[in-house]
TrEMBL record:
Name the UniProt record assigns to this protein: 4-hydroxybenzoate 3-monooxygenase
Originating species: Tardiphaga alba
The keyword Endoplasmic reticulum appears for this protein: no
Domain (FAD-binding): residue spans on this chain: 2-343
InterPro entries according to UniProt: FAD-bd, FAD/NAD-bd_sf, HB_mOase, PheA/TfdB_FAD_monoxygenase
UniProt key word Kinase: no
PANTHER family: 3-(3-HYDROXY-PHENYL)PROPIONATE/3-HYDROXYCINNAMIC ACID HYDROXYLASE (PTHR43476), BLR0106 PROTEIN (PTHR43476:SF4)
Broad class of enzyme this protein falls into: oxidoreductase
GO molecular function: 4-hydroxybenzoate 3-monooxygenase activity
Alphabetical UniProt keywords: NAD, Oxidoreductase
Domain of life: Bacteria
Length: 390
C-alpha cells in the first residue's frame, strides 16, 4: 500500500488531521490499534474552543454539533462556599465555548471519513515506524495475524501519550518536560440533568470538584481524589455524597443523582516532548503533550496542532515548499506551552495539594479573590479558556 500521509491513531487528532488533509486533496490512511466502538466509548473532553468548532465548520460537519452542542458564555468558580460567575463572553470580547463531547466529535469525524470512502484500519496490531529519518518512510502493522506495510511521504504520530510514535524517536533527539500532580480526578457520567446551566469549578478544603455536562439530560462530574484511590472502591452513593460536600448549599440541595453510566480515575500530568518533528515523522496531540484537564485544553490543542500540520502539508504539496513543515514544531509548541501554563495555573489555583501549608492556602485564596474581582484577571482567564488564537 502507498499513501501520502500515514496517520497513526484514530483519536480526535488523527481523525481531524485525516479529514483536513482530505479536504486539501492529500490522501491518507489511518491506523488504529483499537476498534471503532472502543474509541467511541472513551469518555473524555467536553469543552470545545471556538477555533476547534471553526475547523469542524470548515469541513462541513457541524450540523449535529450546532443542533446538540451547548453554547456556554460563562463558567462559575466556587470557593469559600460562594459561587462567582466569570462572564467569558464579556471578558473575552465576545468569544464563547461549546459543550459537546469528545465522543461526539470523534463520531462526526468517523462518519465523514466513512462517507468519503477513506481508509481507516482498526484493530491494527504492533504498528511500527521505519525509515522516517530517511527518504522512504514506512509503517508496518499486523491485522488478523498478517503483516502489512504502507509506504508514505510522511508519518503523523497521533497515537496519544502511550502510543508508538514518540517512542520510535531516538531518546537523544527528544527533550521532555514533565510535572506529575499528586492527585487524580474521579469522574462520573450519569443520565441526570446538570446541577447548573454552566460549569462549576470548585475549590474546597476536601479537594477540587467540577460540575460539567454533555447535554440537558446528561451530566459529567469530577472530584479530586488521591492517586492510590481505586475506582472499584467508590460506589455511586459515595461519589454523590462526596460531590455534595464540596458544593455550595443551593447546588448540593438541587443536585439530581442517579446511576453512573461510567466511572473512572484519571491521573493529572503536564508533559511536553520537544521537538514535535523528527525527520518525516510529526507528532500531534497527546502523543506530544499532555495537560491536566482543569483548563479543558487537551482536545483543543490536538485540534490546533493538526491545523498547523495540515496547512504545512498543504503548502508542501501545493507550493512545493517545506517552510511550513520546518516551522511546524516551533509554531505548535508556542501555543502548546501557553496552554500548559494556563492548565497548570488553573490546576494550582483549584486543587488541594497534600503538602500545602498555611502560606500556600492563603496564596490560593488571594489568587481566587483576585481573579473574580479584577477585570484584568478575569479577562486573562477568559482569553485563555475560550482559546488563544491560532
Ligand atoms: P487520544 O484521544 O489518546 O487518541 C490516540 C489514539 O491512538 C490510538 N493508539 C494507537 N493506534 C495505533 N497504534 C498504536 N501503537 C497506538 N497507540 C495508541 C489510541 O487507541 C487512540 O485511539 O489522543 P489525541 O487524538 O491526541 O486526542 C487528545 C485528547 O483525547 C485529550 O487531549 C483530551 O481528551 C483531554 N481532555 C480534555 N481536553 C479538552 O480539550 N477539553 C476537556 O474538557 C477535556 N477533558 C480530557 C478531559 C482528558 C481526560 N482524561 C481521561 C485524561 C477530561 C479527562 C478526564
Ligand atoms: C468535561 O466535561 O469532561 C470537562 C469539562 C471541563 C474541564 C474538564 C472536563 O475542564
Amino acid at each position: 500500500m502507498r499513501t501520502k500521509v500515514a496517520i497513526i491513531g484514530a483519536g480526535p487528532a488523527g481523525m481531524l488531521l485525516g479529514q483536513l488533509l482530505h479536504s486539501y486533496g492529500i490522501d491518507n490512511i489511518i491506523l488504529e490499534r483499537k476498534d471503532r466502538d472502543y474509541v467511541l466509548a472513551r469518555i473524555r473532553a467536553g469543552v470545545l474552543e471556538q477555533g476547534t468548532v471553526g475547523l469542524l465548520e470548515n469541513l462541513g460537519i457541524t450540523e449535529r454539533l450546532h443542533h446538540e452542542g451547548l453554547i456556554h458564555d460563562g463558567i462559575e468558580l466556587l470557593f469559600g462556599g460562594v459561587r462567582h460567575r466569570i462572564d467569558l463572553k464579556a471578558a473575552s470580547g465576545g468569544k464563547v465555548v461549546t459543550v459537546y463531547g469528545q465522543t461526539e466529535v470523534t463520531r462526526d469525524l468517523m462518519d465523514a471519513r466513512e462517507k468519503a470512502g477513506l481508509t481507516t484500519v482498526y484493530d491494527a496490531d504492533n504498528v511500527s515506524l521505519h525509515d522516517f529519518d530517511g527518504a522512504t518512510p514506512r509503517v508496518r502493522y499486523q491485522k488478523d495475524g498478517v503483516t502489512h506495510e504502507i509506504a508514505c511521504d510522511f508519518i503523523a504520530g497521533c497515537d496519544g501519550f502511550h502510543g508508538a510514535s514518540r517512542q520510535a524517536i531516538p531518546a537523544s533527539a527528544v527533550q521532555t518536560y514533565e510535572r506529575v500532580y499528586p492527585f487524580g480526578w474521579l469522574g462520573l457520567l450519569s443520565d441526570t440533568p446538570p446541577v447548573s446551566p454552566e460549569l462549576i469549578y470548585t475549590n474546597h478544603s476536601r479537594g477540587f470538584a467540577l460540575c460539567s455536562m454533555r447535554s440537558p439530560t446528561r451530566s459529567r462530574y469530577y472530584v479530586q481524589c488521591s492517586l492510590d484511590e481505586k475506582v472499584e472502591n467508590w460506589t455511586d452513593d459515595m461519589f454523590w455524597d462526596e460531590l455534595r460536600r464540596r458544593l455550595d448549599t443551593e447546588a448540593a440541595e438541587s443536585l439530581v443523582t442517579g446511576p453512573s453510566l461510567e466511572k473512572s480515575i484519571a491521573p493529572l500530568r503536564s508533559f511536553v516532548a520537544e521537538p514535535m518533528r523528527f525527520g518525516k515523522l510529526f507528532l500531534a496531540g497527546d502523543a506530544a503533550h499532555i495537560v491536566p484537564p482543569t483548563g479543558a485544553k487537551g482536545l483543543n490543542l490536538a485540534a490546533s496542532d493538526v491545523h498547523y500540520l495540515s496547512m504545512a502539508l498543504r503548502e508542501y504539496y501545493d507550493d512545493k515548499s517545506s517552510a511550513g513543515l520546518d516551522n511546524y514544531s516551533a509554531t505548535a509548541l508556542k501555543r502548546v506551552w501557553k496552554a500548559v501554563r494556563f492548565s497548570w495555573w488553573m490546576t494550582s489555583m483549584m486543587h488541594r495539594f497534600p503538602d500545602a501549608d498555611g502560606f500556600g492556602t492563603k496564596l490560593q485564596q488571594a489568587e481566587l479573590d483576585y481573579v473574580v474581582h479584577s477585570d484584568m484577571a478575569r479577562a486573562s482567564l477568559a482569553e485563555n479558556y475560550v482559546g488563544l488564537p491560532y
